[in-house]
Amino acid sequence: MEGFVIAVDRGRYTCVLPGAGPDAPTVTAMRARELGRKSVVVGDRVGLVGDTSGAPGALARIVRIAERSSVLRRTAEDDATTAEGRLERVVVANADQLVIVSALADPPPRTGFIDRCLVAAYDADIEPLLCLTKADLAGPEAVLDYYAELELPYVLIRPESELDALRSLLAGRVSVLVGHSGVGKSTLVNRLVPQADRAVGTVSAIGRGRHTSTSAVALRLPPAAGRDGDPGWIIDTPGVRSFGLAHVSADSLLHGFPDLVEGTLDCPANCPHTPDEPACGLDAWVAAGKADPRRLASYRRLLASRAGESDPRGEPEPGGERPGHG
Ligand SMILES: Nc1nc2c(ncn2[C@@H]2O[C@H](COP(=O)(O)OP(=O)(O)OP(=O)(O)O)[C@@H](O)[C@H]2O)c(=O)[nH]1
Ligand SMILES: [Zn+2]
To answer: 300, 264 in Cβ contact below 8 A?
Structure first.
């Protein structure tokens, strides 16, 4: 039997069988020994044997993991020079889209976080979608201006707005949602999947027990009125507050900044693109108005945090870096 892993909890994997309807029971499985050290994560397509009836107490075994079409990874820290920094985790397998949820106000948008997510998305070969919430509180102009050079798809969310545009972007695909605490991600998940019942306004899981649902969960989207076909799946990732990028090479980091790529064509071979490299073409590129200087600053901040030079947590940026303030 083929299964799709929708949740992982202490060595037990919850799977759904493709073709089984939304009301079919889920199958609980454990890993078979023959899998060795290979980890099974949410989004994996697996081969199941044993009792796949989904009856209470039934336990199936995962004997095979299908080749993954994409792998979203994160590292605990950014610093590629330390063992802790290199500790790499697969967050989700086989996602098609990374939905970066950012509030337009309360909390204000952090383009440093969004840039980090974009690097992770391009690195994983997952399409990004910018989901700007709390559009009732502030306009999107400053954020959109910052990303003007990128063809970054986006949707705006207000409390009373229809979610049709978002639903059509989610249809038929597996989308992972990431966002900082308080941006309205749980509110959005509950609107998209009313039966999900995700906790809203819980402030943050930080400081609580580690077991307070910090692992990823895949939720089946309900059929949308007037639309046929698979409505898709969303994967909520309550535990992912940031993406450490130590596993991403300096060159791959640049893929998160497509507006800067052309500016490196005249760089010397093996240019580190750092501010202390006088021959780096990026300074001239920005000086010539070909890209926004804030974009280069953000790229170099990520480069530096990877090299262990600055704030290794890479959490929010220093004040004044917000769009429209730089
Ligand atoms: N004005 C406004 N407030 C919103 C909107 N969406 C969510 N909120 C409020 O923002 C607060 C945080 O929302 P949550 O959904 O809990 O945010 P979260 O991103 O899930 O954060 P955690 O619960 O910490 O994971 C709540 O008080 C929501 O009612 C919105 O579109 N507009
Ligand atoms: Zn360079």
So the answer is: no
pLDDT score at 132: 98
Output the CA 273–ligand 2 centroid distance in Å: 3
Which structural domain, as residue segments, surrounds residue 6? 2-65
Q: Pick the ligand that lies closest to the CA of residue 276.
A: 2
Q: Is residue 324 part of a domain?
A: no
Boundary-marking domain end, from 10, 38, 65: 65
Mutate to test the pocket of ligand 1, among 200, 203, 212, 237 (most ligand atoms within 8 A of CB): 200
> What is the pTM (predicted TM-score) of this model?
0.87
pLDDT of 75 reads 73
Backbone angles phi, psi at 230, to 5 degrees: -75, 120
Residue 84 has pLDDT above 70, yes or no: no
What is the rounded distance in angstroms from the CA atom of residue 320 to the CA atom of residue 297? 12
Q: Which residues pair with 47 in a beta bridge?
A: 2, 64
How far is residue 274 from each of residues 84, 118, 180, measured CA to CA in Å? Answer: 24, 20, 28
Residues with Cβ within 6 A of ligand 1?
133-134, 136-137, 157-159, 179, 181-187, 200-204, 238
Amino acid identity at 145? D
